[in-house]
Design brief:
Layout lengths: L1 E4 L2 H8 L4 E8 L3 E10 L2 E8 L7 H13 L2 E2 H8 L7 H13 L3 E6 L2 E6 L3 H17 L3 H10 L5 H14 L1
Parallel strand pairs: 1-2
Antiparallel strand pairs: 2-3, 3-4, 5-7, 6-7
Helix pairs in contact: 3-4
Length: 172
């Protein structure tokens, strides 16, 4: 069982009975890093793993799209499914799947000796995560500036913004 912790102090209580505990350190000195604490008897070891805020590459997105459409898939099924557009070696697909799993986009189970991958994020959540990254990168986290830019560039009309505002108001 893995547990997500929000601070160094939080892990002590949560790691009891958990195999791993992750927490995120944010700041200028640390960048964005995910630390993995591994329970080993009474001690814990820290291993530094970069927490990626990067968007998916086109190939990574194609893999996630394939798994969303096809459902649980093996590496070979993913490779064959992408073959018309992307001729990839088996080792390349396995590396990409492992990296997507490390970034929490996929999970796997073992069926005999074969890994079966499943999407761990629904399409809507991934889209929202991507839009949030764009807002952070280009508008310093301001959703208002983002929406104003979409209107200014004629991506969204004022009527569409009003409709969105109505939907937000109805959800409260």
């Amino acid at each position: 069982m893995d547990v997500r912790c929000h601070s160094v102090h939080d892990w002590r209580a949560k790691i009891a009975g958990a195999e791993h505990c992750y927490f995120v350190v944010k700041g200028r000195d640390h960048g964005n890093r995910r630390w993995k604490l591994t329970r080993a008897g009474l001690s814990a070891t820290f291993s530094n793993v970069t927490l990626s805020n990067r968007q998916l590459t086109d190939l990574q997105q194609a893999i996630v799209d394939f798994i969303w459409k096809a459902g649980p898939s093996t590496a070979e099924q993913v490779r064959e499914g992408l073959a018309p557009k992307h001729e990839l070696k088996d080792s390349t697909i396995r590396t990409l799947l492992r990296r997507l799993e490390d970034r929490d986009y996929l999970t796997h189970t073992v069926d005999g000796k074969v890994f079966v991958y499943r999407a761990s994020v629904p399409p809507r959540s991934l889209a929202a995560r991507s839009v949030q990254q764009i807002i952070e990168r280009f508008w310093s986290g301001s959703a208002e500036q983002f929406l104003a830019g979409m209107v200014d560039e004629k991506v969204l009309t004022p009527a569409q913004i009003r409709k969105l505002a109505s939907k937000v108001k109805d959800r409260k």
